[in-house]
Design a protein that fits this description.
Length: about 100
């Protein structure tokens, strides 16, 4: 598995500004950072279950385009399973087939 990968996405806040979130794989674990639109530097953050689901969605889309190995997706699925959240595995299999 390739180490030191960064995956980034943004969310809109209630006032319409963008907030960036970065998931970083350091070959052993996922680390998350947040960039607030007020210009603050990247700050460490604790991921919520929603953050894990958004990361999984992003990774699955990259996996479909053959830009990411399946093992990265499986690491996030393992975390979601520990949290008691079942990703949409059946839908994913239909999308790949």
């Amino acid at each position: 598995m390739t180490k030191n990968q960064t995956h980034e996405w943004h969310e809109r806040l209630e006032d319409g500004r963008k907030q960036y979130i970065r998931g970083y794989w350091n070959s052993r674990e996922w680390l998350f950072r947040l960039a607030h639109p007020d210009g603050e530097a990247w700050m460490p953050m604790q991921p919520t279950p929603e953050t894990w689901l958004k990361l999984r969605d992003l990774l699955f889309r990259k996996y479909q385009r053959k830009k990411l190995p399946l093992k990265h997706l499986q690491t996030v699925d393992a975390v979601l399973e520990k949290l008691g959240i079942k990703p949409n595995a059946e839908e994913d299999e239909q999308d790949v087939a």
